[in-house]
Amino acid sequence: MHEPSQGRRGGLSSWFAGLSRPRRMLAVAAAIAILVAAGTVAIGAASGAPPQAYQHQALDHARRAGRPGPASPVGPAQDRPGPVLLVPGYGGDTGSLAALASRIRAAGRRAIVLSLPGTGTGSLVADAALLNAAVVRAMRGGAPSVDVIGYSAGGVVALLWARHDDGAARARRIVTLGAPFHGTQLAAVAQALVPGQCPAACRQLVPGSPLLTSLDVARGAGLPPWLSIWTADDKVVTPPGSARLAGAIDIELQAVCPTLAVTHSQLPTDPAVINMVLGAVSRAPMATPNHAVCH
Predict the structure, then answer these.
(1) Which of 61, 41, 199, 196 shows the shortest CA–CA distance to 125?
(2) Is residue 119 left, alpha or beta, with left meaning phi > 0 and alpha meaning psi from -120 to 50?
(3) How far is the C-alpha of 166 from the C-alpha of 159, rounded, in Å?
(4) What pLDDT band is residue 58 in, cutting at 50, 70 and 90?
(5) What is the tens place of the pLDDT at every residue in 32-47?
(6) pLDDT band for position 75 (50/70/90)?
(7) Model confidence pLDDT, tens digit, residues 247-294
């Protein structure tokens, strides 16, 4: 049985093969330029496991942490916030979340930016295991719950953890910024044109990949309160609406702040986005942001 992404690769490859040699070279150069700009050119290990394998790995992580596997418990108390765990995007650049973490700390909360394994381009399953380990440490240290913020591919990691590692029982709230829950065409182009430079996480973010299929993004049940923020100006997560998640409060930034021009890389540092995040992880009930966050 072929993976869903292979059909897409065939279509793109046929298109590519039909180009003249100069146009092929131009297309490859353009793809590489986009990938480099997005921090997506790296070499990593493959991950061809079927969807069920991701859940099995999550169950193994749970057992090693000394707790039962996924269940459907009542979530944490909303008026008892614990630490905020921030998950970087593809490439693992912790600096991209430094300003946001600083604002959260200034508001009186503990904020921890996770360092992803290796180059931050390996399997998102390993990243979810790292997030799970951080949650276990926090709760064993007395935290009543955690809030999780996932930027870009870090948002997919947050969903992977929430789905397969009992996140609804331990996460008070989750906020994601420009998360490609439905994948990104940029990954599909990279897989088709420069497959040797599309590592595990890149392949997992191809629309229709086994990992994305396992996340059941059309089902909102079983998730903690969730705010998904994305920008219409995103050229990395394409289409930008890939950040839509059933059951979440979905916010296109320009629907709240029409005059803002914010790229994918600017999401974690934009003042309006930071205001939205601070409101979402406060003690107040999670609600749809209004125009007040724009100023």
Answers:
(1) 61
(2) alpha
(3) 11
(4) very low
(5) 444 444 443 332 333 3
(6) confident
(7) 999 999 999 999 999 999 999 999 999 999 999 999 999 999 999 999
- CB neighbours of 88 closer than 8 A, spacing ≥ 6? 94, 96, 97, 113, 114, 116, 120, 151, 152, 154
Q: Are 31 and 194 in contact (CB under 8 A)?
A: yes
The residue ranges of every structural domain in the chain are 4-294
- Domain 4-294, CATH number (from 3.20.20.140, 3.40.50.1820, 2.40.50.140, 3.30.499.10): 3.40.50.1820
Residue among 29, 32, 47, 38 at smallest CA distance from 91:
38
- Specify the DSSP element, H or E, that contains 230: strand 226-230
Beta bridge partners of 229: 177, 251
Distance CA 183, CA 168 (A): 23
Per DSSP bridges, beta strands 84-87 and 111-113 are: parallel
Structure tokens at 20: 């003249």
DSSP 227: E
Q: CA 132 → CA 52, 80, 144, 272, distances in Å?
A: 19, 20, 15, 29
